[in-house]
Design brief:
The chain has 323 residues and is α+β, with helices and mostly antiparallel strands. The protein is built from 13 helices and six strands. The strands form two sheets. It has a four-stranded mixed sheet, with helices on both faces. A two-stranded antiparallel sheet has the order 1-2. The radius of gyration is 25 Å and the shape is elongated.
Length: 323
């Protein structure tokens, strides 16, 4: 239901923008003549314009989504600097992953390692050919086998529950709306620039230049609508992430058979979380713990339950240590 909210938000946003244009005097007429000047708001014209515009919006979003969705593996590897390892290169981590996969009856995912002395891990991928568990060199060196099994069990549970597919889907939709917001914001300068030039020419010729004001208002309202839509998509993405982290903790504890080992691993990771060089918040959302440089600021701390992609680590530890 949460994922369905993303396309719904995009469609609502399109309708609102068309309604704003109509209220400012631009009404949809027909397929041959998209818009004409009007004096009052016309709901039928708004709905007609929406029905004509939707196929174009759906097509553009669909192409954008497909490209981002299927290129996510390369994007994440590039952002984190991960590289694959074989059993010969790292038999310890390979054997732990293999044993846990045999325990739960799942196919063996790829194993990647990031050269980082600090601690972190994440799962990624959208299907059996791209599912990957990635760990830092620091987490391999500083966790014992039971703790490492708990962390890997957590990441394997993300894969088993299709969490990586869900999160990547939400990341792509948020990226689409974020890009739309950036495009509209960048157009403000052009609107100001060209409307100012048009007004100057009109004043020289003794003509009116009131049309540019209506266009500027339409753009500003569209930006506000897009910003609101972006806010709600961010909130939805965070809600999906927090819920699934608790579920992955439970699955990881069950797989490794030792909830306290996973709790101990989370405590060590939270004290020194790695992958600080990853500046992209959407990619960092996949990590088992948030990197240091992405810690919450003052505004985020004030609304921590809304703006946190992960549940509080101490709360996760407390729940695991109850068993």
């Amino acid at each position: 239901m949460l994922l369905l909210s993303f396309p719904c938000i995009i469609l609502i946003l399109v309708w609102v923008i068309i309604a704003v244009l109509n209220a400012l005097g631009l009404a949809f007429v027909s397929n041959e003549q998209y818009y004409s000047q009007t004096q009052s708001f016309d709901l039928d014209s708004v709905n007609q314009g929406f029905l004509v515009t939707v196929p174009w919006v759906v097509g553009a979003v669909g192409i954008w989504f497909a490209i981002a969705y299927f290129s996510n593996t390369a994007m994440i590897q590039s952002a984190t600097g991960a590289h694959s390892v074989t059993r010969k290169e790292n038999p310890r981590i390979y054997n732990i992953v293999e044993n846990l996969c045999m325990t739960c009856g799942m196919e063996m995912p790829k194993i990647n390692v990031v050269d980082d002395p600090q601690l972190n891990a994440y799962a990624s991928g959208i299907n059996d050919s791209t599912y990957t568990v990635t760990v830092t060199t620091g987490i391999c060196e500083r966790l014992n086998d039971e703790e490492l099994a708990g962390v890997i069990g957590h990441e394997l549970t993300h894969i088993r529950n299709r969490d990586t597919k869900v999160l990547i889907t939400s990341i792509v939709f948020v990226g689409i709306i974020s890009a739309a917001l950036n495009i509209l914001t960048n157009n403000i300068y052009r609107i100001f620039y060209f409307s100012d030039r048009g007004n100057r020419r009109s004043n020289v010729k003794g003509e009116g230049g009131g049309g540019s004001g209506a266009i500027l208002i339409a753009i500003v309202v569209a930006i506000v609508c897009t910003a609101i839509a972006y806010f709600f998509t961010i909130m939805t993405r965070f809600a999906i992430s927090r819920k699934r982290e608790f579920m992955a903790d439970a699955g990881g504890a069950e797989l490794c058979g030792n909830p306290h080992a996973l709790a101990s691993a989370l405590r060590k990771i939270s004290n020194d979380p790695g992958l600080d060089n990853v500046s992209r918040a959407d990619v960092a959302q996949l990590f088992i713990c948030k990197p240091d440089q992405l810690k919450e600021g003052f505004f985020e701390k004030s609304f921590s339950q809304l703006f946190s992609t992960h549940p509080d680590t101490q709360e996760r530890i407390r729940i695991l240590e109850q068993f």
